[in-house]
Structure formats: structure tokens, C-alpha cells
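Q: My collaborator sent me two sequences in one message, no labels, and asked for predicted structures for both. Can we handle them in order? The first one she listed is below.
A: Yes, handling them in the order given. First sequence, followed by its C-alpha cells:
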Amino acid sequence: MESKETAVERGSGNVFADLGFPDADAHLVKAELVSRIDDIVRDRGLTQTEVGRLMGLSQPDVSRLLRGDFREYSLERLFRLLTTLGRDIDIVVRQPRSAAGGKLRIAEPA
């Protein structure tokens, strides 16, 4: 059996940038926020219907959101959903960490 070499390309850390999405940083932040929402839902053992009732969404909308269909959601709306689930949101504006310029990111909780 012949072995074939597989080319491997290292990603940038942002799959949305790697795929050429416009506003890739914002897409990555949204994905991280939705991941946090999903973590809360799982930790609390809530159904999508219960989550929808809490957040003012229909169950199908919750399902789409948690499956990654969040394009229609603004960052502000995702922030509101997280605060509805009892989370604080801190926004920090500071000098960039590198010469490459500013970036959006979600920090891990302390």
C-alpha cells in the first residue's frame, strides 16, 4: 500500500478568517458567546423550550442559535441573552497587545 502525504496548513486561530469571512473577528466573538450560552444551558440542564422562555426566543430559534446559526444576532443581543441567563458582561478597551492592531476577543473567566 502506498502512503500519500497529506498537506497540513496551520490555521490562524480564527476559522472565519481562514475561510475568508468578512468581519471574521466579530464572527469568532459571536461563536464564543454562543458557546458560553450553550455551556450555561448544559450546566443548568435546561431544555431549549425553557431557555427560549427565559430569553424571549422560540424553541426553533434557540435550536438554530445553539447549532451555530447566529449570523442574524448582533453582539449586543448576545450580550443581553447572557445577562438574561445571569452572567455579567465586562467590556474593556485598552492598547493593543501587538503592533498588528486591535482585536476583539472573549476573555476566560477568572
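Q: And the one she listed second?
A: Here it is, processed independently of the first:
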Amino acid sequence: MRPKVLMIGPGRKVHGGISGMVNNYYDAGFDRMVDLCYVGTMEDGSKGKKLFCAVRACFLFLIKLPRYDIVHVNMASDSSYYRKSVFIRIAHFFHKKIVIHQHGGNFREFYEKELTDQGRNKMKKVLSMADAFIVLGMVWKDFFGSIIGKEKISILPNAVQVPEQSGKEYGLHKILFLGRLCEEKGIGELLGAASVLREKHPDVHLYLGGVWEDETLQKKAENLAGFVTDLGWVTGEMKEKYLRECDIFALPSYFEGQPVSVLEAMAYACAVTASDTGSIPELIIHEETGFLSPPRDAQALTENLCRLLDDPELCRTFGERARRKVKTEFSIEDNCRKLLNIYENLMNQQNK
């Protein structure tokens, strides 16, 4: 019998990486591999809308819970942790098998700097309720292993559908960014780098795909409208269009879990420069499948972008290697099989 899984996380229309990964599962047909019900616990919008969504999700979760054997919790830090801890406690009370799937890139700082000793003890208790604990990379297995032990922890990287290969043109000097448009994503450094690079490469153009969360940076981008284009939040065919057309992808974030956007850029054979943070170094091998630079280091970012703009063949080499790496290590089909195996192991434990 197919595992019966009640999965929770942000609404599937929310602008963020977890929603993107959940949608990747649906696009890959994972809901046909398992008996899957998804409950969105958060929506974009006002505080009132978010509160209504959380309350509604709690009632829906309680109604659905009896017919499901496994509860899969997609979690990040801050409010996501507090919100999801309620659902974890409920599932634990009703003796359900619990999978905690940790996505957040800022969890270490949240745990070490924002929680009190009492808060950390409560977190350890909540996270220990998991029967299986999924992280995105080895750096996260080490971190969460120090809290709950490594016995339950599995590494399951994010994954994407790899498109059919098409002729990618390099040397176009088109730089793409996908994600939230805010300080923590390195947008200030990226806009500054684009301004400097334009002096040497007048045809350079930066495309920003995302939703603005910082008015100051938005105004700065508007002042650079001659070579910076605000695409808004892009999905579907529009996102595919820019991933195919842009030869360079940049993600200079201050912190990350394991960004789906980088995997998407690699799958479309973009030459990537990204921050050396979270599990990104497991995707981008410096000077092999792309460039890495320290977070907040505007000069290193500018130098990496300059090298890519100067050398179309280097872009091609990085892009082709990156695509091969995604195809062999980060395909959504392989990810689905591994997640199904985690579920089946839990079901076998329950039936013993």
C-alpha cells in the first residue's frame, strides 16, 4: 500500500524556496507515488491573513490527521519553527510517524543568538519528536546532529527537473537573479557590482526576478533602470524563458539552506556565482562548476562576475559542468525515490 502522508508547509503559491520544492514534487508526480495531502500553514500577505491561514490550517490538520500515518513537516527558522512546533506536538500526541524536513538557511543564528537556554531545550524536545529528520546537506547534518544526535538524520538535497538540452548562447552578458529582493539576498552588493561592471561592459544587463522587501534597494534599482530590469516574481514559462536566455546567474545571499534557484540555473547551464554559505558549496564547486564568494563581499562578487563577463568559454565550461552535476546528483526523480524510501522505512518500523 502507498504510504499515507499528511504534509505541511507554506502555501504552494507562497514566494519562497520551500513552496518551490513542494511544487517540484507535485510536478514530478510524487502525489501519485504516495497518498499525499498537503496543508498550507502560511500565505503571503498581511498579519491578519497569515493568522487566519494558520488557524484554518490547524483545524484542517486535525480533521485530516486520523486517516494519515505519516506527518511530513517542512520547517525553517523563526516563525516557521514556532508555527510548525504546534503541528509536531499534535502529531506526536496522536502517535503519528513524524518527518521533519529542515530547509532554513538561518537556523544556526536563530538557535545560537535568538533563543534562550530554555528555548533551546524546548527546541531539542520538539525536534527529537521526529522519527526521521531530513536536512539538505552535510553542514546541516553536523549542526542538527549536535542537537538531537545523527541517528535519525538523513541528507536529502533539494532537486529539480532537468530540462531538455538546448543551444545555450554565452557572451550575452545577461545576469539573472531569482529570489526575495532584500538585503539578506545580497541585492545591494549585486546592484553595486552591476554598476561597476557596466563601465567595462556597457551591454551588461541585470534581471531581477522576485518580490521587493526593501524600499531603499527598490529605489536604487529603479535609478539603474537603463541596465536593471525588475521582472517581478517569475514562474512557469516566464522563468524558463529567462533561465534559457541569461548566460550568468548570481545569488550573493548572506545565508541559505540549499537554494532551488541555484539548482534551476545549473540545470539550464547558466554560469553561476553564489555565496559560500549553507549547502551551496555542495552544489557549486569553486572554479569547477561556478564561482563562490564570501557573503557580503562586494569586491569578490564583482571580480567573479567580471571574469564571467570577460570569458564566454569559461561560462560555457561552468554551465555544462553544472548541468551534468544536477543531472547526476540533484534530479527530482532520484529525490522522490529517496523520500519514498524514508517513508517506507517508517511504515516498516510501524508494522513490526
